[in-house]
Each structure stands twice: as structure tokens, then as C-alpha cells.
Amino acid sequence: MEPFTVNIPEPVITDLKNRLQNARWPGQADDSGWNYGTSETYLKELVHYWINDYDWKLHEQLLNQHPQYTAQIDGILIHFQYIRGKGQNPKPLILTHGWPDSYYRFHKIIPLLTEGEQSFDLVIPSIPGFGFSGKTAVSSERVADLWKKLMTEVLGYEKFCAAGGDIGMGVVKALTSKYPEVLQAVHLTDVGYPTGQEDFTTMSKEEQEFAQFVQQWWYSECAYAMVQSTKPQTLAYGLNDSPIGLAAWIISFTNAGAAPEMIETAFGGKDELLTNIMIYWITQTIGSSARMYKEDAAALWSGTQVHQKSNVPAGVLVFPREAQFPKEWAERFVNVVSFKKMNEGGHFAALELPHLFADELRSFFYSVHNNNS
Question: Is 293 among the residues known to form the active site?
């Protein structure tokens, strides 16, 4: 472990502002709004704020307010936050982000989960290929291997808890399949989607309806995953060179079920939205993060993924602006001991509703602990 501090040279920020100020705007169809992708009207307003009001140095200080480290694991540089809980016997918990977010997804719940008697030792890493970790893109199962070594060999925990959604969900599921002996419990906000490889006749009516919804959603909203799973390098040239292109791509898939006017609320606010985009820009990891989709797609279709359901207790939360899968779908993958459908919130609940999300994590993990005592 080596201490780490975010410290971006000023010329990087100057170059960014020059690119923002000298952008060539493509124009958009009359009255098209968000129907063709990210609204140019909205994006111009955000870029104006980015240039004139957003303070990177302030947010850099906020990123550095919690202890951060790097470690080389199997030749891959892993960046992670490590914040010890203040209770008498805090539970170790690793939180895994997704795409198009970053480890920053969890910054609001850090103080909520490290204070009080029911507290946690929080480990919040950047997935390889994202943020301040190395730019080596690997599959979700490979990330699970790295996380197991991070928690047991680098940090010295015999057993730990894990939580994640989106790509983080795939990592947590892989942990339960490959390393159940080191897990106390896991928590998920989704469990994956039908791929077409399932036997439709074995599915319940609710699962079939879910599969049909996902098929429709795939063709209407999933352009990013199709491109990133097939031609991530082609995409990377434009997004790594243009901050406005990068912002448009990320924003197009950030509202995740929310109306366009809710995009900032869904991600926690304008500054949170821009700080997340900045992490991709300053580290130049949009290309390597997209390549992870290619790695996961190759693992899925090659049949090499491990799909072994274990007895690790799992809690599942379904937020209303997420795909509404039934409990029996979740039970195909994990040992569901708690399944709850929430009344508000979406894909980035840790940013949008941090108190609610933190309360749910604490309640679940400590209930499992108490039941096993």
C-alpha cells in the first residue's frame, strides 16, 4: 500500500478549458429535445457552468479528504479509498462502482457508514481501467480475483462484506461464486439481465415479462453497451479527445430511467455530475473503461464465466427507476435473504438518496450478522 493524493497539474485544467471554449457544436434537429440523445441546449448550459463556475480545485480537495492508497495486485495498479469505522467492531465492506460512474459514486455515504456503533471499514476501489487505477481492462470475474486479494492479502481481513450495482453487481456476483468462504454477506441493486441464452419455458410469468421489457430496452436505450462491447477502441478516439463529446456520452446514459429534467438530481447535482466526468477526463480512462464491456462480453459468449450460486446471504434492493425484476429472477443467481422494492430513487441511489441507501446497507449487513451470531 502506498498513500495516494489526487493532484492534477494546472496545465491539464487550462487545456480542458481551452477545448471547452473552442468546441465545434454540431447543432440539433428542431424541437428534438433529448429524443436523439443528449440535448445540445442542456449541454451548452452545463459547459457554460463548467467553464465559469465549476471549481476543480475545490472538488480535488474533497476527493482528498478521505485516505486513499494504491497497491500493485497481480501486476495491476489498484487505487482505493480506505476509511476505518469508528465503532467498536466495524464490519469490513468493499463497495464497487459501475459505468459511467466511478469510485466517486459513494462519497456521500462514507461519513454515514463510518460513524456510530454499527459502522464499517469502507474499502472503495477504482475498477481497473477506471479513474486512478491502472488502465488495464479486465473482466468482472478478474476484478473479483483482485478484490479478494485486496481485502484478504493487502488489508488482512479474513472475511468481509461486499456491495455493488451495475458493473459492480457483476463483480459481487463473481465474488459469491468464486470466493464464498471469505464473504459474510453481499448486497446488490441489480442482478443482471436476460441474455437470450436462458430457457424461456423455465421462467415464471413475471420473469418472462421482465425479459420482454429488457429486450425492448436493449434496442431503445442500450446503444452504449452494444458499441462498448464490440468497438470500444473506435469510440475512445473521439471521447478521449473532446471533453464535450465525453460529457455528452456519459450524460446520455446517466439519467437511467429519470426524465431529462431530473438528470442532475439523479446523479446528485451539477457539481457531482461534472466531478465524475472530470475523473474520466483527467485520467484518460474512458477508453479503458469501455474496453471492460468487451472483456465481459467475450467471457459471456465464450462460456468461461463462473455461474455457481453459493450460500452467501444476499440482500437485493430494486429502485423504481431501474428495471423491475422479480425476486425469483434474483434467486437464480444469489441466496436472497432480503428483497425490497423501494418507493423512490434510481441507478445512482448512493448519490441521489445517500441517507436512505446507507440505512439500507447498515440494516441489511447488521441483520445478517445478528442472525448468524
Answer: yes
**Range of 6's domain?**
2-372
Please give the grid coordinates belonging to residue 256: 437511467
Specify whether the CB–CB gap between 368 and 184 falls below 8 A: yes
| Domain count for the chain | 1
- C-alpha grid cell, residue 291: 474496453
101, 145, 166, 190: the catalytic one is 166
* Maximal CA-CA distance, the chain: 63
The string of pLDDT tens digits covering residues 261-281 is: 788 888 888 999 999 999 999
Catalytic residue among 145, 280, 293, 296: 293
**DSSP string covering 90-103, please?**
PEEEEEE--SS--G
Among 291, 287, 288, residue whose Cα is nearest residue 299: 291
Angle CA(183)–CA(185)–CA(188) in degrees, nearest 5? 115
Cα dihedral across residues 196, 95, 140, 157: positive or negative? negative
Residue 357 C-alpha cell reads as 441507501
pTM recorded for the entire structure: 0.96
Helices (H), 54-131: 56-63, 110-114
Report the CATH number at residue 349.
3.40.50.1820
